[in-house]
From TrEMBL, chain B:
Transmembrane segments: none
Source species of the chain: Candidatus Dactylopiibacterium carminicum
Record's catalysed reaction(s): a quinol + 2 Fe(III)-[cytochrome c](out) = a quinone + 2 Fe(II)-[cytochrome c](out) + 2 H(+)(out)
Protein name as it appears in the record: Ubiquinol-cytochrome c reductase iron-sulfur subunit
This protein's UniProt keywords: 2Fe-2S, Disulfide bond, Electron transport, Iron, Iron-sulfur, Membrane, Metal-binding, Transmembrane, Transmembrane helix, Transport
Automatic annotation (TrEMBL), chain C:
Keyword Transmembrane helix: yes
Entries under PANTHER family matching the protein: CYTOCHROME B (PTHR19271)
Taxonomy of the source species: Bacteria, Pseudomonadati, Pseudomonadota, Betaproteobacteria, Rhodocyclales
Annotated residues for binding of a ubiquinone: H225
GO MF, any single term: metal ion binding
The name this protein goes by in its record: Cytochrome b
Function: Component of the ubiquinol-cytochrome c reductase complex (complex III or cytochrome b-c1 complex), which is a respiratory chain that generates an electrochemical potential coupled to ATP synthesis.
GO biological process annotation, one example: respiratory electron transport chain
Homology family: Belongs to the cytochrome b family.
Gene Ontology cellular-component annotations: respiratory chain complex III
Residues the entry annotates as binding heme b b566: H118, H220
Length: 253, 212, 490
């Protein structure tokens, strides 16, 4: 048997083994329409400060970092600063750790890097956040009265409920084929409307998620811009060093 | 490059410093661009030695409320990590400043670091002579001088002492306008930071007065 | 103003002054300008200098990171561990810091990519064979140091993967009989991975191992330059020299191989820059997503896997279950049986008996293939418990041993030729299977455990071991082609 045949046989075995392995209970995530333009980021920053910063810190960020999304220090001071008296201060939560532990059972996590931490094989961290923030529903069996389709048994109540309104989840009981009755999620419907329509709410969540993507790595756009320059220089250098190598080696016999 | 090898290769041009002009040009171009790229790569490393954004943010202007400061008292605030003194001088203190010219190195503060809108022997903004604002760091080697506000022989600073500051490290003496006395280690008067009055009782340190 | 001639004279005088006190010119000639390397190096021979370049990048970026990083597990005012926050401080607040950090994190993965390819080159062309055994052994020691360096360094960002990865790896030592549990506490300096662990890992990462690494790299190069480089033909160029004693197929390292290595370095930097500037997370393989969460000692992330470069060995660790031990024993028995047949030396035969008995007892105690029989039950249980030679222990031995097996290659390979170019179909097929197994093991190491994955990993583990264990026989059986006397060139 030739080496190629052996290789082919082995490769085939590998391919056959893969699909069995890859199938797991992967969450279905909606694609987040992330936009890093100033308008989205500023709208997102406002939502973040108003609805998230009450319980979650963003300690890797300082208020004056927000000048990078096109705000002036005066605008930041007037509209966004509730938890610090200096514009160079960290974006900390107003809530005390001990209170948080008592109220929610665990301290709400710092959100500085959440958009990077929530990435997985199922989608980007932004996708996870975008899906999560739109899938809260009323559940009286939970201490907060809220539950989440993506994150069942979530400790956090629905912070944006006055914008989205209240949703109810429809579950149907199904047979899983092995004689067990399982609850199967069918869909969400709004039972009490909030201040925004569904489309408006989705757009606002997209802004919020975009801001969280930005804040997970504020320099990401300049990083890519610098990258193109570096690659251009290295490209020319590669060409030159290839010509140089050829010039030296042409005499070697 | 060894001579033997050159023979072995039947006189082939074989040396790095060959006369082949196109190869020379190529070598120069590659080395030049490589060196430029190397300098570019050094940028983040050199930049990382400069003060971080957090340190710069800590250097942002500081607002001070002066309403609680009584005459003869000194307030210390932190600006850029340095102590900034705000001394509210009594009329006697101000009067004493006028008598010291011949004992001082630079009574007119011509060599001192101070904003253009600060003037006179009181070294203060016109109309605000009462308040003396300065960076409390000795111009010699960077210690922070101590208060010596008591006057006369009781001060332990000599008969004619009109109040001032003494640096504990090397003994430099300053008057109540931060002016250094003669034959002291410190070369110049104390530094006055940019500052401006937002109102009668609100002072902003770190930002220049406008229209002065 | 000096003329060019005078300047040259001055330079020559200065060099003479130095040469009388330090062998500068001699070193330069021996290692650079008159180090004759084979002409027919192909791209596989670029990975050595690339590895050196990555080492330099790691050392330089590392020095600058140490200036800002704080190895401190305590919580800051915002409730975030100081070490974790200091990494984000570098990323956001230190000018240029994010590039330095991304270079360092990318460099870690690049190091392993380059070193794995460098080692594979050795397998292809038989670079480990006589007289290059020590070059290979120094290289293996470098590889081990690199693994230690990567392991210790991975704790420093103090994220979820840092903490739990260290927890799992340190607990492997607990599998060592008798002293194990105390040893793992000793390594951590605490009962869990804590501030004490972080501080000692920091010390190992930034100074202890780098010092050893630099020494080993120097030794690797000195040994290489003593025996001379191998080449894709596996022909010893030193055997054919001209009247002046210069290898006929050799060419001076400078400028010929230098210009080649420069080209290689630029290509490497292009790949490096694409990762640093456009995909620093490397799809979750270079910077794992869970590591963007601070380490929480009370909550393990749902799926933890080591960084990609450790996953082949991690797979072998997981593959070693109690039901897998009989297969391992069969492989050991086969190797010993072949040795017995091929060698009549009394001492080797005695050693064979000892290995069989020891391995059998170690794997199964006094039972038949792990199935206990009533009269022996208690005794066996006592032996197993007393020595702790269970599947966990063998898993750890497997993980460490599978790395160390590479070090035996110079003595396992008995093929009459060095290079794959002149080896037969048998060896080519076996090497291909070995590489595929290594890749499959690496893949399954990144995945959560699954029944299919475990069986595939076990098959691959056996094949991986067989590559080394059976090499003395298949390398002799292989039908090799005649090796030319001179290099094949152009």
């Amino acid at each position: 048997m030739s080496m190629k045949k052996i290789l082919a046989a082995f490769g085939l075995g590998l391919i056959l083994a893969m699909p069995v392995q890859a199938s797991g209970p992967a969450a279905v995530l909606d694609r987040a329409p992330v936009s890093l333009d100033a308008a989205s980021l500023q709208a997102g920053a406002k939502l973040f400060v108003n609805y998230c910063l009450g319980c979650h810190g963003a300690s890797a960020l300082r208020y004056n970092h927000l000048t990078q999304i096109g705000l002036t220090e005066q605008q930041i001071k007037d509209n966004l600063m509730f938890t610090a008296d200096k514009v160079g201060g960290q974006m900390l939560t107003a809530m005390r750790m001990e209170d948080a532990k008592r109220w929610f059972g665990a301290a709400p996590p710092d959100l500085s890097l959440i958009a990077r931490a929530k990435a997985s094989a199922s989608g980007s961290g932004a996708d996870w956040l975008y899906t999560y923030l739109r899938q809260f529903y009323r559940d009286d069996s939970r201490p907060t009265g809220w539950n989440n389709v993506l994150f069942p048994g979530v400790g956090m109540p629905h912070a944006l409920w006055e914008l989205q309104g209240e949703q109810q989840a429809r579950f149907v009981t199904r047979d899983d084929g092995q004689g067990n009755q399982v609850q199967h999620f069918e869909g969400l419907e709004i039972v009490r409307p909030g201040k925004l329509t569904k489309e408006e709410y989705d757009a606002e969540v997209a802004n919020l998620v975009s801001f969280m993507v930005w804040m997970a790595e504020p320099g990401q756009e300049s990083r890519r811009a610098i990258g193109w320059v570096v690659l251009a220089v290295l490209g020319v250098l590669a060409l030159l060093s290839w010509l140089l190598k050829r010039a030296y080696w042409k005499d070697v016999h | 490059m060894s001579d033997h090898k050159q023979e072995a290769l039947a006189g082939e041009s074989f040396c790095a410093c060959s006369a082949d002009p196109s190869r020379r040009a190529l070598l120069a171009a590659t080395a030049g661009l490589g060196a430029a790229a190397g300098i570019g790569a050094a940028v983040p490393f050199v930049a990382s030695f400069t003060p971080s954004d957090r340190a710069r943010a800590a250097g942002a202007p500081v607002e001070v409320d002066l309403s609680g400061l009584r005459p003869g008292e000194k307030l210390v605030v932190e600006w850029q990590g340095k102590p900034v003194w705000i001394l509210r001088r009594t009329p006697e203190m101000l009067a004493g400043l006028k008598t010291l010219d011949d004992k001082l190195v630079d009574p007119g503060s011509s060599a001192a670091e101070q904003p253009a809108y600060v003037s006179g022997e009181a070294r203060s903004i016109a109309g605000k002579e009462e308040f003396f604002v300065c960076v409390g760091i000795c111009t010699h080697l960077g210690c922070s001088p101590s208060d010596k506000f008591a006057t006369g022989a009781d001060s332990g600073m000599g008969e004619g002492w009109k109040g001032g500051f003494l640096c504990p490290c090397h003994g430099s003496m300053f008057d109540l306008a931060g002016r250094v006395f003669k034959s002291m280690p410190a070369p110049t008067n104390l530094v006055i930071p940019p500052h401006t009055y937002l109102s009668d009782t609100r002072l902003l340190i770190g930002q220049d007065s406008k229209g002065a | 103003m000096l003329t060019a001639k005078e300047l040259e004279d001055k330079g020559r005088q200065a060099l003479a002054w130095v040469d009388e006190r330090f062998p500068l010119s001699v070193l330069y000639k021996t290692h650079v300008s008159e180090y004759y390397a084979p002409k027919n190096f192909n791209f596989w021979y670029l990975f050595g200098s690339m590895a050196l370049l990555v080492l330099v990048i790691q050392i330089v970026t590392g020095i600058f990171l140490v200036m800002h990083y704080k190895p401190d597990a305590s919580l800051n005012a915002a409730g975030v561990p100081v070490a974790f926050a200091s990494v984000e401080y570098i990323m956001r607040e230190v000018p240029g810091g994010r590039f330095i950090r991304y270079m360092h994190s990318t460099g870690a993965s690049m190091f392993f990519i380059v070193v794995y390819l460098h080692m594979f080159r050795g397998l292809l062309y038989g670079s480990y064979r006589k007289p290059r055994e020590l070059v290979w052994l120094f290289g293996m020691a470098i590889f081990l140091c690199l693994m230690g360096e990567a392991f210790f360094g991975y704790l420093l960002p103090w994220g979820q993967m840092s903490g739990w990865g260290a927890q799992v790896i340190v607990n492997l030592f607990a599998a060592i009989p008798v002293i194990g549990p105390d040893l793992s506490v000793f390594i951590r300096g605490d009962f869990v991975v804590s501030d004490a662990t972080l501080n000692r890992f920091f010390a190992f990462h930034v100074i202890a191992i780098p010092l050893v690494l630099l020494g080993l790299v120097t030794a690797h190069l000195i040994a290489l330059h003593e025996v001379g480089s191998n080449n894709p033909d596996g022909v010893e160029i030193k055997e054919r020299k001209d009247e002046q004693g210069i290898p006929l197929d050799g060419i001076p390292f400078h400028p010929y191989h230098v210009v080649k290595d420069v080209l290689g370095a630029v290509v490497l930097l292009i790949v490096f820059s694409i990762i640093v500037f456009f995909m620093p997370e490397g799809g979750g393989y270079f910077l794992e997503y869970n590591n963007f969460m601070p380490y929480d000692q009370l909550k393990t992330p749902p799926h933890i896997a080591p960084v990609w470069y450790f996953t082949p060995y991690y797979s072998m660790l997981r593959a070693t279950t109690s039901s897998f031990l009989p297969f391992l024993w069969l492989l050991v028995a086969l190797i010993v049986g072949l040795t017995w047949r091929g060698c009549s030396c009394v001492w080797i035969r005695r050693a064979c008996l000892l290995v069989v008995a020891g391995a059998y007892w170690g794997f199964f105690g006094l039972t038949l293939f792990g199935f206990t029989k009533p009269p022996f039950d208690l005794a066996i249980a006592g032996i197993h418990l007393g020595l702790g030679l269970d599947a966990k222990f063998w898993g750890v031995v497997m993980m460490g041993g599978s790395v160390m097996l590479f070090a035996l290659l110079p003595w396992l390979d008995r093929s009459p030729v060095r290079s794959i170019r002149y080896k037969g179909v048998l060896y080519k097929a076996i090497l291909a299977v070995f590489v595929i197994c290594f890749l499959i093991l690496g893949y399954y190491g990144t995945q959560p455990p699954s029944p299919v994955g475990n069986v595939v990993s076990q098959i691959c583990t056996i094949l991986y071991l067989a590559y080394f264990g059976l090499m003395p026989w298949y390398s002799k059986l292989d039908k090799c082609k005649p090796v030319p006397e001179r290099l094949t060139w152009k």
